[in-house]
Design goal:
This protein is mainly alpha-helical and 201 residues long. Helices cover 73% and strands 0% of the residues.
Length: 201
């Protein structure tokens, strides 16, 4: 039972963050999922500055780390999968750091605070960790269908990441939508890995 919970924690994290972002946004007047970043829910001075990390970052960091450890335990001495597990743990730690150090309320500020800079670095490591992990899986000994799926997730996530960066640079609308599409594609990959390892256990 304990092993099942550990392996399913990747799926639980995906469901948790989806509900957590939705719930936090309900307490943020006029919050727009299409035009605002997820991190704006926990930004300094936002109506949900205290709530968002409590229901999102802190429990999610634990779930990501737990699942990462589950992947390592299920790796059967596969160096690639051990690396994947550690990358997921890095993502979990980054989630904690990003919650503890909030971004500035204005995402376009030209003079970011220390907290915002730490938040941005944490977000960068979070982004990289869940891009490198599925990339490594492509070269693993896992099922062929999952390796192909992992490759498609990486390409699609990178596409929407590019769209998000372009929208941010131009201060255009839909920056929040592109962020969510890029991130949730990686979370779907994580949830699929979670279910696959659980079924095989």
């Amino acid at each position: 039972m304990e092993g099942s919970v550990v392996l399913l924690s990747g799926l639980i994290a995906t469901i948790w963050i989806t509900l957590g972002v939705y719930i936090a946004a309900r307490f943020y007047p006029n919050y727009n999922h299409k035009t605002q970043f997820c991190s704006e829910l926990g930004a300094a001075g936002s109506p949900t500055e205290q709530l968002s990390p409590l229901i999102n970052n802190y429990p999610l960091g634990f779930l990501f780390c737990l699942f990462g450890w589950g992947v390592i335990e299920s790796a059967h001495e596969s160096l690639l999968l051990i690396c994947v597990g550690w990358l997921i743990i890095v993502h979990g730690v980054g989630t904690w750091v990003a919650g503890f150090f909030p971004m500035d309320k204005d995402p376009y500020t030209t003079a970011p605070s220390f907290n915002c800079q730490v938040h941005s670095y944490a977000g960068f490591f979070m982004l990289l960790s869940l891009l490198i992990a599925p990339t490594l899986v492509i070269f693993s000994q896992l099922e062929v269908w999952f390796r192909v799926f992992s490759g498609l997730c990486v390409v699609t996530a990178c596409y929407y990441l590019y769209k998000m960066a372009l929208a941010f640079k131009q201060k255009a609308n839909l920056v929040g939508l592109y962020q969510r599409l890029s991130y949730w594609i990686k979370l779907i990959w994580l949830a699929t890995l979670s279910i696959m390892l659980w079924v095989e256990s």
